[in-house]
Amino acid sequence: MSKRLQVILDDGEMKEIRTIARRRRMTVAEWVRGALRAAKAEEPAADPRRKLQALRAATSHSFPTADIEEMLAQIERGYAEEAA
Question: Which of 5, 19, 20, 48 has a CA between 20 and 30 Å from the CA of residue 32?
Answer without folding.
Answer: 48
